[in-house]
């Protein structure tokens, strides 16, 4: 029965939707009264529940002959992002080095009917994107937007650090939209380009053609919108462009390295418009996802790499996928030129891992915590159990563990003589929160940056 359900769903749903949401699910039970679908993670469950339950119910009814109850559950255990414990590599062939990233420049220019150009990089498609817990929501939202632009999430605001795939995702929306509907008018621009176009239009006194270009589109993708900061005139114009599109049900997608409310000198009215759809953030990928990204990249380039090498590179670059890819290419180039075997030892000289953590003093950690959480150093070292203070203290212990060489008992001492088991408990707890709560992960990252920065400038 489930096979029949799947077959029908495959017809009803788009390919990426099916692949992403349905294929990863398992029918745990299917009989006359009840269907239990097991999904790999809570996110998939919510997503199915929210967007596809109706379609599934209809299909099941067709197959079974009458409506039945549908339950969606979550598999026990971890995320199913990378379910291939051992990796297979395609046959070796000469590595394709001419095609070196980090900045792929192959630009496929697609001109749409009204002459609006959409400069999309042909590599930035959904199929080349690895989905992990770090970008699952942004990916799902992007798919949804490509499938039904102007509906659910308008605007879609993608935000995340440099090199985490914002541009890739945005352009994937464009490609996929064109695949679904080839007459769609897609415009992808950087904010800089938008500004330049506007300036040119003013100079040539051709505001109208500017407006035609940007207001007669089905999907407007504007990258690095944080650069609109302080540009009053561009903001003014963009405000009207945005409104025109939004009112006519056209899709707007924006990418930024930070959320709207953290863009300085952004008009309040723009900020509120940017926030009215969905803000989907992209976090740095975890180790498994980084390995999967390298693996995928290697497959595309027809390179064969030992697992240790993948793991080594993946653990050296943690928060910028562009750098991660760059390191892979450098390693492969070096090996092919030197003729050495591909081993961790041989490639390590050409990988210069970015300084990930700077050795910090315990004081620097405590100070960063006190300032960030607005609690006093005395409180951190004291025994208050007030929630804000105890959370700040736990985060402090966790960060001290990461940024210094101090032992658990020594960390305890730094926090006013706490027991080492308390320190251990705090570190575990924060580590767990970091895994499960994106806002905690972000807080830790920001604090880490702050501590790094403070410690670096002191040197
Ligand atoms: P951003 O715009 O956020 O700075 P990009 O979209 O330019 O980042 O991505 C940087 C590089 O990393 C690109 O080559 C992109 O293809 C690659 N990349 C980013 N995210 C992923 C991912 N999830 N899977 C595979 N490759 C990725
Ligand atoms: Mg970008």
TrEMBL record:
Domain AAA+ ATPase intervals: 152-280
Q: Where is this region: Domain IV, binds dsDNA?
A: 336-459
| Residues covered by region (Domain III, AAA+ region) | 119-335
Say which species the protein is native to: Stenomitos frigidus ULC18
Enumerate the PROSITE patterns for this protein.
Answer: DNAA
Which InterPro entries does this entry report, sorted A to Z? AAA+_ATPase, Chromosome_initiator_DnaA, Chromosome_initiator_DnaA-like, Chromosome_initiator_DnaA_CS, DnaA_C, DnaA_dom, DnaA_N_dom, DnaA_N_sf
GO terms in the biological process aspect are: DNA replication initiation; regulation of DNA replication
Span list, region Domain I, interacts with DnaA modulators: 1-81
Protein name (record) = Chromosomal replication initiator protein DnaA
Q: Which Pfam families match?
A: Bac_DnaA, Bac_DnaA_C, DnaA_N
The UniProt function text for this chain reads: Plays an essential role in the initiation and regulation of chromosomal replication. ATP-DnaA binds to the origin of replication (oriC) to initiate formation of the DNA replication initiation complex once per cell cycle. Binds the DnaA box (a 9 base pair repeat at the origin) and separates the double-stranded (ds)DNA. Forms a right-handed helical filament on oriC DNA; dsDNA binds to the exterior of the filament while single-stranded (ss)DNA is stabiized in the filament's interior.
Q: What is the name of the gene encoding this protein?
A: dnaA
């Amino acid at each position: 029965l489930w096979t029949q359900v799947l077959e029908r769903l495959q017809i009803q749903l788009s390919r990426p939707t099916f692949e992403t949401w349905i294929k990863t699910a398992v029918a745990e039970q299917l009989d006359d009264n009840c269907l239990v679908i097991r999904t790999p993670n809570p996110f998939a469950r919510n997503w199915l529940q929210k967007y596809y339950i109706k379609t599934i119910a209809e299909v099941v009814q067709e197959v079974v002959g009458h409506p039945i109850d549908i339950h969606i559950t979550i598999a026990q255990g971890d995320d199913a992002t990378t379910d291939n414990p051992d990796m297979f590599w395609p046959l070796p062939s000469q590595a394709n080095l001419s095609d070196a990233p980090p900045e792929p420049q192959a630009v496929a220019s697609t001109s749409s009917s009204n002459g609006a150009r959409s400069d999309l990089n042909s590599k930035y498609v959904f199929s080349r994107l690895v989905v992990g817990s770090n970008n699952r929501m942004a990916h799902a939202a992007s798919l949804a937007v490509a499938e039904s632009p102007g509906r659910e999430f308008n605007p879609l605001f993608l935000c995340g650090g440099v090199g985490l795939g914002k541009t890739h995702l945005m352009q994937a929306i464009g490609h996929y939209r064109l695949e679904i509907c080839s007459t769609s008018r897609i415009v992808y621009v950087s904010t800089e380009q938008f500004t330049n176009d506007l300036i040119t239009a003013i100079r040539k006194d051709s505001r109208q053609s500017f407006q035609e270009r940007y207001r007669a589109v089905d999907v407007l993708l504007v990258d690095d919108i944080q650069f609109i900061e302080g540009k009053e005139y561009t903001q003014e114009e963009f405000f009207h462009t945005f409104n025109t599109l939004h009112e006519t049900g056209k899709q707007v997608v924006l990418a930024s390295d930070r959320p709207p409310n953290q863009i300085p000198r952004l008009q309040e009215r723009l900020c509120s418009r940017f926030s009215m759809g969905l803000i989907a953030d992209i976090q740095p990928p975890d180790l498994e996802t980084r390995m999967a990204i390298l693996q995928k990249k290697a497959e595309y380039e027809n390179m064969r790499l030992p697992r240790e090498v993948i793991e080594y590179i993946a653990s050296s670059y943690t928060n910028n996928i562009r750098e991660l890819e760059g390191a892979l290419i450098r390693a492969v180039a070096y090996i092919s030129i030197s003729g050495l075997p591909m081993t961790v030892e041989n490639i390590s000289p050409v990988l210069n891992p970015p300084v990930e953590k700077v050795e910090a003093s315990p004081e620097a950690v405590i100070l960063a915590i006190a300032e960030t959480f607005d609690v006093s150093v005395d409180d951190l070292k004291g025994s208050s159990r007030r929630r804000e203070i105890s959370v700040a203290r736990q985060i402090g212990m966790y960060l001290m563990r990461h940024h210094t060489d101090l032992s658990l008992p020594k960390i305890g001492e730094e926090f006013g003589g706490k027991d080492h088991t308390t320190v251990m408990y705090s570190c575990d707890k924060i580590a767990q929160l970091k895994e499960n709560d994106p806002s905690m992960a972000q807080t830790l990252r920001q604090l880490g940056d702050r501590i790094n920065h403070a410690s670096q400038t002191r040197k």
